[in-house]
Amino acid sequence: MTGKQRRQFIKGGIGALFTLSFLPGSLRQAMAGRKTSLPGDEFLWLEEREDCAALAWVKQQNQRTLARFAESEEFRRTEKQILDSFNNQEQIPWISMEGQYGYNFWQDEDHPRGLLRRTTLPEYRKAAPRWETVLDIDALGKAEGKSWVYNGFQSLKTGDPHALIMLSPDGGDAVEIREFNLDTKAFIKEGFYLPSAKSDVSWIDKDTLYVATDFGAGTLTRSGYPRIVKRWRRGTPLSAAETVFEAQPNDISAFAGHDDTKGFERDYVGRVLDGIRQEIFLLTKQGKKIKIDIPADANFSTFREWMLIELKSDWMVKPHRYPSGALLATHFDDFLAGKRDLQVLFTPDQRTALCGYSFTRDHLILSTMKDVVNRLEVLTPQENTWQRRPFGNAPALSTLSAGGIDEETNDYFLTVEGFLQPPSLYMGNLDNDNAPELLKQEPPRFDASRYQVSQYFAESKDGTRVPYFQVALKNIELNGKNPTSLNGYGGFEVSLFPGYLGVEGSIWLEKGGVYVVANIRGGGEYGPAWHQAALRQNRHRAYEDFAAVAEDLIKRKITSPPWLCASGGSNGGLLVGNMLTLYPQLFGCIVCDVPLLDMARYTELSAGASWMAEYGDPSKPKEWEYIKTFSPYHNLNAQQPYPAVLFNTATSDDRVHPAHARKMAARMQKMGYQQAFFFENTEGGHSAAADGQQVAFLGALTAEFIRKHLPASADKENNIS
């Protein structure tokens, strides 16, 4: 991770209110498009994203779903609740500091597509700061006749006005990139410009960029990512840009980055091999590539003279063996010179894992987690050792996170939140022991005093203890009839932490619901080993874990199958798709958002080929033998009773192709399962929503689907309406 990568982008606010993001990291997604399939796939035609016949089918399905779930007074009340929450002027306007300004991306009723705006830190401390509009996305779209979705900006360096603005035409991952002046608040005439594509760019200096994009035939990998990185100089056509690195066609992508830390400027190039492994080189001014000789599955970052290495597998550096999940530090120049003086900053154990870290000028803020509850430490390098001290306190079963504000000071931002605790934002300085200053605190969206957060452990099929969080009434009646939403993800080493339920508190908890998050294998809650335990041929373990949590909730009489809903998005959509086909007896309904479902075709749809390290390669017969066991599309059985299911997706999702949801719904309906419902939004990409109104509509649609399919949700005597 270079200095430029550490600098935060100001991103849009819709994020993942009802769906989870799929693949962490900076990789852009793209389309493949080969047409091979197993025999008997009668719905292959639904893979044509914009085909008239496919879109006619989508329209018909949408009408059916909306007629069933979007016409009641309850739907309209819920939609208004979600939209009012989204547009609430009292929510925290999160900022990222760039020089003297804090930048914020804000969406509300008057600005549905959002404002990029800024203010000074003294002004931000006020209850009602004065904001200066930098770019109005709604006004831009109106002027240009396009429905732009903002996707962030990348500044040249802290405090410099030159920036690259990313705009998506439909909310997908493909973005148009334009050079922008943050001070004049205008796009730069004759500035850097890239048309809509899955591009990765990085500033080198004011007049030079690293560019990885679609340069034409043969310049993309099989996964559809850029294969070639070029150095592009201002005033020259893109066709004249100089190639600095090429990945192989079967790699996932090529990349390059520039670290502009004063006195420690460095350039890197490399390739992502398979989603887990990568190869990285230091690029010298003479064009020489010096390999960073660390394990291919390790992550590393540099900060001034330091290099940090995060291990994903055991590493033997004689005479020492460093375990998977450890964090190591060394001097970068010494390491390149062949020295291996590695200092251990963190060693995991069976219950504790690394969560992340952030630098200030002189310190490292280290975040770890024990049984999915995180804690912070401050580490300070002193000659040949690192001094350690605890940092921050948080209520039980909540989430504490902190990061350096910039690279020139020891200032930091600290956030605290929990399922029942609205987020709070603090600011402090690591040079003193003073308590951090409370900058902003979000008001509660519901009365949390009636509820409590608990953590339990279920025993999976192979005996593994699987943690899960439960949010429920303090005096919950253990009668097996509490409507319960069970949520999970279980992939790509993504961890699920306690986060404020907000509007879900009012539309779910306050109506008698129980909210549960399962921390199953495939995620990162216990480090790399927790992720690796559910890869490829062991994928079934993630699904066994989730089913075990469901069974534990039933055993504890929190709920029972008719009152239990499984919800997940993206890889979590694959998770709940397997709950549908493998464990249908455990659930009353399923919400399956932007999912993978056809695991025979996933490598040929959108960016699927980049996920083979996670799932396997279905084109290889030996691997298909285990992949087919968790391919919901192929495991449907016309004789098997299934719970009701709602598939949500978006035409513009260029990360996980909408054909997965389309084909699954079509096949279920052909088998006679009329309780299979489908809705496809046009915009929004992998979030399936491009603005607050779309978020509210999708959220209300989902809530109404659940309300109609969990029997207790019609029982007014239990305060469910």
What does this structure look like?
This protein is of the alpha+beta class. It has a domain at 445-718: Rossmann fold (3-Layer(aba) Sandwich), CATH 3.40.50.1820. It is globular, with a radius of gyration of 25 Å. It is built from 14 helices and 39 strands. The chain is 18% helix and 31% strand. Residues 1-36 and 713-721 have low confidence and may be disordered.
Write the topology of this structure:
Blueprint: H1 3-6, H2 52-69, H3 73-86, E1 96-98, E2 101-106, E3 115-120, H4 121-124, E4 132-136, H5 137-144, E5 149-155, E6 162-168, E7 175-181, E8 186-187, E9 193-197, E10 200-205, E11 208-212, E12 228-233, E13 242-246, E14 253-259, E15 266-272, E16 278-283, E17 289-291, E18 299-303, E19 306-310, E20 315-317, E21 320-322, E22 327-331, H6 332-336, E23 343-346, E24 352-359, E25 364-370, E26 373-382, E27 385-391, E28 399-404, E29 411-417, E30 424-429, E31 437-441, E32 451-459, E33 465-473, E34 484-487, H7 503-507, E35 514-518, H8 528-532, H9 540-555, E36 564-569, H10 571-582, E37 589-593, H11 612-615, H12 621-627, E38 644-650, H13 659-670, E39 676-681, H14 692-709
Parallel strand pairs: 34-35, 34-36, 36-37, 37-38, 38-39
Antiparallel strand pairs: 1-2, 2-3, 3-4, 5-6, 6-7, 7-8, 7-9, 10-11, 11-12, 12-13, 14-15, 15-16, 16-17, 18-19, 19-22, 20-21, 22-23, 24-25, 25-26, 26-27, 28-29, 29-30, 30-31, 32-33, 33-35
